[in-house]
Amino acid sequence: MTLRCDLIIRDATILDGLGGPRFTADVGVTGDRITAVGDLGGRAADREVDADGLALAPGFIDAHTHDDRAVLCGPACMLCKMSQGVTTVVVGNCGISLAPVRMKSRPVPPLDLLGDESWFAFDSFGDYAGRLARDPAPVNTYALIGHMSLRVEAMQGDTQRAATDREAAHMQARLKDALAQGASGFSTGLYYPPNMMAPTDEVIAVAEALRSVGGLYVTHMRDEANDVLLSIEETLRIGRAVDVPVVISHHKCSMPENFGRSTETLPLIDKGAAGQKVDFDIYPYAAGSTVLMPHRLRRDVPVRITWSVPHPELAGRMLADIAAEWGLELRAVAEKLVPAGAIFFQMDEPDVQRIMAHRLAMIGSDGLPHDSYPHPRLWGTFPRVLGHYARDLKLFSLEEAVRKMTGHTASVFGMVDRGVIREGAYADLVLFDPATVRDASTYDAPTRPAEGILETWINGQSAYVFGAGATDACAGRLVTRNQG
Ligand code: ZN
């Protein structure tokens, strides 16, 4: 037993990540691991932190991100996450991943959420993993491989149809290689035009690569509106067909005519969960954000522009205001703004709360780090759940809030020795003030850092300090499903 630690955090209120009741203890860290939890009164450390009255939790795991490129860009790019206490991000969601595809021209939306063609420069997932090994990211990265990225490559951009058997076999082989090189699962975005024509059987054919390694199937479903129940059934069917766990991304009931229907979707998911492994993530807001699709606009869903290639000066403006100024219909304006992104006010708060409170819910930001005027979820998701939803609205306990962002998530994704405070676990930690923690980002000021998150450690290294910002530690690692 080591008597001297690198770091001791003393008298902290420990939230263990598993939902157990809080208790007061000291936590000792040596190297990249937690080496002691308890009364460490007899021990000394190179650095001691007095955490009396403060909460110490496992570092938060952002279950749903589009940080594939942001993790390659240094600490400043990940400040939005580390300032929330996030220590691990799941990249490659919604069918969109940087690897393994090389682009020669601007990627089709929504692949361009990750950037222009210059960023799609990884022929294999191994190349991407190699980059993270040579030049470590500020946070831990856990990677999914996107169906859309595989499709664009296998079908040479001709995606408005079902893939042929040969193309599906090619995608399956590419996915299998990526899984062997450290990727952990497969994501789809069947809602988006470049994938909509993919029938369930195509998805099953590609996802077959998951079976032998027990990889995860993660999906932005085909429909989150009128046909949300059919989409949940499709998702469950895909999981059963290849015998792997499934994760429903950013679960919601979209569009005014579907408000309240979480009373139908959650029981259907529960029914599925009785016979197979299914979980879901959610962001704590009643508005979503993605690329702007002119043909899908509706008058009853307000839209705020987050970026536009031809009109960058309009980021942050309401689409309806621009339409009034220009004397044009919404769709005509949108056609002048694309390629572009937007925030869509398309959900109902009671659904958001009902879904978030469900025992299977994990917290995932779905933040879009390259948007010039991002949805506030990018900077505010985790403190918003801790402050607004757990402490202020009492939607669930602080212990449960932390479980939804740590232990539960680590268990769903198979992140070994993460998401928990115990001896032997990785020292991914966040120190925060439970009385003051809150999101400060809003729709009008979307990049204001959270308050009350005091310090974030990743693999034992201090990564973020309130008031001082991100450190240059870059101690992040690639985390692979079920590998220690
Ligand atoms: Zn999505």
Which tags fit this structure?
484 residues, alpha/beta, TIM Barrel, Dna Ligase, domain 1, 8-stranded parallel sheet, globular, binds zinc ion
Structure in a nutshell:
By secondary structure, the chain is α/β, with parallel strands linked by helices. It is built from 14 helices and 22 strands.
Structural overview:
The protein is of the alpha/beta class and 484 residues long. Helix content is 29%, strand content 23%. The strands form four sheets. Strands 1, 2, 3, 4, 5, 19, 20, 21 and 22 form a nine-stranded mixed beta sheet that branches. Strands 6-7-10-11-12-13-14-18 form an eight-stranded parallel beta sheet, with helices on both faces. It is globular and about 70 Å long. The two termini are 22 Å apart. The model has no long low-confidence stretch (mean pLDDT 97). The structure holds zinc ion. The site of zinc ion has 5 residues, from loops.
Mean pLDDT: 97
CATH homologous group name of the largest domain: Metal-dependent hydrolases
Small molecules bound? zinc ion
CATH architecture of the largest domain: Alpha-Beta Barrel
Number of helices: 14
Strand content: 15-25%
Q: What's the CATH class label of the largest domain?
A: Alpha Beta
User: What is the radius of gyration computed over CA atoms, rounded to a whole number of angstroms?
Assistant: 22 Å
